[in-house]
Amino acid sequence: MGTEKKVYEGRVFKIYPEKDSIEKIELNIEYARVTWNNLLYHCYQPIYAKYCDLSRKERAKAVRKYLSSIEYTEVKELRKRLNKIKRTDIDEKEWTRDCDSQIFPQTLRILKKAFDNYLKNPKHFKVPKFKSRKSIRYSGSYQTTNACRLVNECTFKLNKVSNKIPIYQHYPSDGRLYKVNIKKKPDETYWASLVYEQSEHTVRREKTGRSVGIDLNVSGGNYITLSDGHIYSVPFEEIKRIENKIERENRKLSKKYEQWRKEVAIIENDNKKALIPAHIPKLEERSNYQKNRLKKAKLQEHLNNIKKDSIRKICSQIANDYDIVAMEDLNVSGMIKNSKLARAVARSNFREIRDTLKYMLEWSGKKLIFVGRFYPSSKLCYECGYKNDNLTLKDREWDCPNCNAHLLRDLNAAKNIEREGLRILKEEITKEKGKSPGKI
């Protein structure tokens, strides 16, 4: 008998560590960063050997420049070096003994995955790079599996952290705790991402036998239009209001940063002549700058939560109501190049809609079909198939000159996407039947 198939589900919960626990968590985050850099240095050793005559700063610049134009085959050879690395090959400091022992193997696994992602899709992913200390000053994460457990519904235990950590579980799981990722966000909150191993997915949506096409839009009023006439909107006015606040905080931060740089330049200039050099203030010591930074981080987190909440509610409703969903395979990176649409497209989070719909439908055994990005869904008349090449982005409604049908642009596009999606699905089913072996 075969082994029972397992599925993995993630939960993200907010944790409330005490001061001592925060110090341990941040020490583990720093250890994860150092481990990543040590592994990467060991991997890139042949490149560093080419620039051994240069100074440390010049060598780092030369390596960064080399990696930006590195050949695919060379990355493949560098990836093989990771398979030979052992923990004894890495020169670890004494302070790392107080850190979680599982961070090293987990970081090695993540780095291997980063290389594999690049080798599979070099256009979408980049070559792994070193992480600076600045990158984890306000945010960072580490992954572990050892001695992490939920004591009860309100308490969480981490390895190498003596105190039990309060946790708010709004969506518990009955599965086995498989993996834990601890993350510190820029707004100075701490989160635990828990991955559970389960026999089946928690949410199982009932089959309805219905299909639908989706047309995505950058405007808030008809953000998502379905082929059956349903329209979903998001609170774009609220999003714009928060974005304006973030811009205002950015301007304040920029002014305070420039003021700090001028003060540092003056002190450094005076220190050249002084017998006893004066203290040069660090940016972390500027309390007003840190207050503005924290305020901006909280606004950004609030904005992200509004977007995620809206998208998940819409996608959940669509996944509940339909078994087959067809949508366009949009070229978002190409759309952002249009300066007039760039901000609206970036705000729309089309990629998150696609990913959220995909996992919600797959969990329930439903189907998501992607229609080609060059399919003229808006220009085709749904009634007769006439193609209107003169249609512009401003035309939200138009009359078909062939059959005189009055068409709403978004609804017409959604209907065409549904029809094309069903045609693609029919072709896939026909091919699968043709490949299946015949009766003997």
From TrEMBL:
InterPro entries: Cas12f1-like_TNB, Transposase
Domain Cas12f1-like TNB: 350-417
Keyword field contains Coiled coil: yes
Coiled coil: 236-309
Matches recorded under Pfam families: Cas12f1-like_TNB (PF07282), OrfB_IS605 (PF01385)
Keywords annotated in UniProt: Coiled coil, DNA recombination, DNA-binding, Transposition
Entry keyword NAD: no
Domain Probable transposase IS891/IS1136/IS1341: start-end pairs: 194-338
Top-level taxon in the UniProt lineage: Bacteria
GO biological process, alphabetically ordered: DNA recombination; transposition
Molecular function in Gene Ontology: DNA binding
Family membership: In the C-terminal section; belongs to the transposase 35 family.
Protein name per UniProt: Transposase
